[in-house]
């Protein structure tokens, strides 16, 4: 044996001694007793046998049965017991950083250890592990990053991929890579874990891998839909279908016979219910009661009503509220904290559970409340399958979800809340029946539930593929379309081609599909490439601060509110922020004001006066920080504010950087006598949304507008836009680096010629010639 083998052998013995010592201690035995009660524990032997006999196995079992905390632990224990402790290295991936952190801590605790001994974790910017760490929990993104420098995962003996049922982009991506890897590394073991019964799909993807199902148990749960909830408020609504010119619309007829006094009291409850259910058409009575609509508290009154109702009328038991995201949760939490019941720690233990909570908050979630105190947890869909809170008997489900995680290496953010699937709704509901019979309140009508899709489409089929394509390139996995054709479910060829084409236009890939320098940087930024581009150039040109706001603003719900009855006031409020023919720069000003108001604790006042959404402004604030730290990761900035904003507060510079990010979203401004019209090459005439600051102008002293998004209704409408000059477009439309000359400059040239701007076209020709020469040399 070599010296190294000897050392590892010695260490393995130590690890075994330590493990045996713990197993025989009083606490160790007590811990084992409680672990034994988990359904996964009953399958310990069959799981271990299956792993030793197969290279790949799929384990499915209901949420909370002990997959995440137990299965990797079983592997670790058995390796250590067999004196292989120091020779094994187990990696378990989690889709979210928060679960990697909380699970590793839990497993270390169950083993009577500190985090960083045999169990550790690693997420972006953070991690705890030591010399003896044999079981590492990490995010899927971290494992993908490791593959970048170590494509064979040398030294790793087991890879456990958790939560594969979620079908996240990263996980699907990882599976393609692992499928290749296991043939190169026949001794590597792969364990896939899913919370739903779709094990067959994964098993056949890996050529008939072994499947183990862990049976679970839930107590019966009573479901209430919005109709029932409204009935509880004393306000009755009946749905009816009405076919009109617009096709079939579901409408709600309000019960007219409501005493006046009650009406004001419950109007807000009902109004919340209806907006929560996202109905576009309201009966006139409803519209009347909707006139005081404030989107910042969608559903809040209804949730508050239900929480009161449960606290006053129902038996003890924890309440789990599913909300869309961190911003909603923090607003509601703030609101509840000043409530006589929910703000009283002797009656209620009010907690939040979301992707960016601190670790002490995580621990509180699992703590049992004192006698007579009710636990209320406001959670994102993280509590659907990743985190199990044991003592929940009531679930309130708002029916919507959004992803807010930026941790994943290539996660394309989809930040607008959307309806969940039937499977998700059932998962949420199931959280109520773990310890005793429970109840679930769905804040949407039964007919909406019936219209939910059965499953959520896998992320790879529903989100833009640009970031994923960059990942494939940076990991040198060959041709993008060939690689993606080997996915569990492949995206359509057209979608792949579109993504590649876009990456070429923006200069991230050259004509031969090779990464450019820009592409290399973009692949390190887990966000839409257009945001990445802006941030990179903003950092280079020293105007990062406003660009952080712009990029964050493009990722959240529009912070400028336009209530229907106060449209003019709201638009006027927005135009105060605008002196530059730019919605994006108006947001930069609004944010600067918000920041000042925050220092003076006058955020609500400020937002109210300026028709701004408190939640969106908060979300922008936290995204800015997120983007900043991601940029720091790339090494483009060192993190000191001075270098990012080198003192130049130049609007035109910022404008050019916005143009760099949003290109090829451009349209030409054509002035006529009284006003102007807009044209794009693809759509011809386009219009501006009425809440754009540019829609209020009669003249725009710039030849172009860049925009983020166009929406086709009857005509094509542009959302937010920024006016830019010829030179900004020429210099920053696309990217100037080797290989782009053909792609983007040709296209830009086409644009200029199309809109007959001869002088500019000439300028462009000269520039192009010079550039070509420069590149040649
Ligand atoms: P699964 O992965 O199958 O959904 P888990 O392994 O996450 O199940 O959870 C198993 C049990 O361990 C659950 O009852 C859960 O409440 C409990 N648990 C998980 N993490 C913690 C923790 N940090 N503190 C206390 N209990 C926990
Ligand atoms: Mg789990």
UniProtKB/TrEMBL annotation:
Q: Where is the Helicase ATP-binding domain?
A: 48-215
Q: Which family does it belong to?
A: Belongs to the DExH box helicase family.
Give Gene Ontology CC terms: nucleus
Q: What is its EC number?
A: 3.6.4.13
Enumerate the catalysed reactions: ATP + H2O = ADP + phosphate + H(+)
Record flagged with keyword Nucleotide-binding: yes
Q: Which residues of the full protein are shown?
A: 5 to 781 of 935
- Give start and end of each Helicase C-terminal domain: 302-476
Under which name does UniProt file this protein? Answer: RNA helicase
What are this entry's molecular-function GO terms?
A: ATP binding; hydrolase activity; RNA binding; RNA helicase activity
Key words, A-Z: ATP-binding, Helicase, Hydrolase, Nucleotide-binding, RNA-binding
Species source reads Arabis alpina
Presence of keyword Ion transport: no
């Amino acid at each position: 044996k070599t010296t190294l083998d000897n050392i590892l052998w010695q260490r393995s013995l130590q690890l075994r001694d330590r493990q045996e010592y713990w197993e025989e201690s009083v606490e160790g035995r007590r811990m084992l007793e409680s672990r034994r009660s988990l359904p996964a524990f009953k399958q310990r032997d069959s799981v271990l046998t299956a792993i030793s006999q197969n290279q790949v196995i799929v384990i499915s079992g209901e949420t909370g049965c002990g997959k995440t905390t137990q299965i990797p632990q079983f592997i670790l224990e058995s390796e250590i017991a067999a004196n292989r402790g120091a020779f094994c290295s187990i990696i378990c991936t989690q889709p979210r950083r928060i679960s990697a952190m909380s699970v590793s801590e839990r497993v270390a605790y169950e083993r009577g250890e500190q985090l960083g001994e045999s169990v550790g974790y690693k997420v972006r910017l953070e991690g705890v592990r030591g010399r003896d760490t044999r079981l590492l929990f990490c995010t899927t993104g971290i494992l993908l990053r490791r593959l970048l420098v170590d494509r064979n995962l040398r030294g790793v003996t087991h890879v456990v991929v958790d939560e594969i049922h979620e079908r996240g982009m990263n996980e699907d991506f990882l599976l393609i890579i692992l499928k290749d890897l296991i043939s190169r590394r026949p001794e590597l073991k792969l364990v896939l874990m899913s919370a739903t019964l779709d094990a067959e799909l994964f098993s056949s993807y890996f050529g008939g891998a072994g499947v183990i199902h862990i049976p679970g148990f839930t107590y019966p749960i009573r479901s209430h839909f919005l109709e029932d909830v409204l009935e509880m408020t004393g306000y009755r609504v009946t749905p009816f279908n009405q076919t009109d010119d617009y096709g079939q619309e579901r409408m709600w007829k309000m019960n007219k016979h409501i005493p006046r006094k009650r009406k004001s009291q419950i109007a807000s409850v009902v109004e919340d219910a209806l907006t929560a259910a996202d109905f576009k058409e309201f009966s006139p009575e409803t519209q009347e009661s909707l006139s005081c609509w404030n989107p910042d508290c969608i559903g809040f009154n209804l949730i508050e009503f239900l929480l009161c109702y449960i606290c006053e009328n129902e038996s003890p038991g924890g309440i789990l509220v599913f909300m869309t995201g961190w911003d909603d949760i923090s607003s509601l939490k703030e609101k509840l904290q000043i409530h006589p019941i929910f703000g009283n720690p002797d009656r209620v233990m009010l907690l939040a559970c979301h992707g960016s909570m601190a670790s002490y908050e995580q621990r509180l979630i699992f703590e049992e409340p004192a006698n007579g105190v009710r636990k209320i947890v406001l959670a994102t869909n993280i509590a659907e399958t990743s985190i199990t809170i044991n003592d929940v008997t009531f679930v309130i489900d708002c029916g919507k979800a959004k992803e807010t995680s930026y941790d994943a290496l290539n996660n394309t953010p989809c930040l607008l809340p959307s309806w969940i699937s039937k499977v998700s709704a059932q998962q949420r509901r199931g959280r109520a029946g773990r310890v005793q019979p429970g109840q679930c309140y769905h804040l949407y009508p039964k007919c909406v539930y019936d219209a939910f899709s059965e499953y959520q489409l896998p992320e790879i089929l529903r989100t833009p593929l640009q970031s994923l394509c960059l990942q494939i390139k940076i990991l040198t996995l060959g041709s993008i379309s060939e690689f993606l054709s080997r996915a569990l479910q492949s995206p359509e060829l057209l979608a792949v081609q579109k993504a590649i084409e876009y990456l070429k236009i923006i200069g991230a890939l050259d004509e031969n599909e090779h990464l450019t320098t820009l592409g290399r940087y973009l692949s390190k930024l887990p966000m839409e490439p257009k945001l990445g581009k802006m941030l990179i150039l903003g950092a280079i040109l020293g105007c990062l601060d406003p660009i952080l706001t712009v990029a964050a603003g493009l990722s959240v719900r529009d912070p400028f509110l336009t209530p229907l009855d106060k449209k003019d006031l709201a638009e006027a409020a927005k135009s105060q922020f605008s002196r530059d023919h730019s919605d994006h720069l108006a947001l930069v000003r609004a944010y600067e004001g918000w920041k000042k108001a925050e220092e003076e604790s006058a955020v609500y006042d400020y937002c109210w006066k300026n028709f701004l959404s408190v939640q969106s402004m908060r979300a922008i604030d936290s995204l800015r920080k997120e983007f900043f730290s991601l940029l720091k990761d790339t090494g483009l900035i060192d993190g000191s504010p001075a270098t990012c904003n080198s003192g130049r507060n130049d609007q035109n510079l910022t404008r050019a950087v916005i143009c760099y990010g949003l290109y090829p979203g451009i349209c030409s401004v054509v002035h006529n006598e009284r006003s102007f019209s807009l044209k794009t090459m693809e759509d011809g005439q386009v219009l501006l949304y009425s809440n754009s600051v540019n829609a209020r102008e009669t003249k725009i002293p710039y030849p172009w507008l860049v925009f983020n998004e166009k929406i086709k209704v009857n005509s094509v409408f542009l959302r937010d836009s920024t006016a830019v000059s010829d030179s900004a477009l020429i210099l920053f439309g696309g990217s100037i680096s080797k290989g782009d000359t053909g792609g983007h400059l040709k296209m830009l040239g086409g644009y200029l010629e199309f809109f007959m701007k001869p002088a500019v076209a000439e300028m462009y020709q000269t520039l192009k010639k010079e550039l070509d020469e420069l590149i040649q040399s």
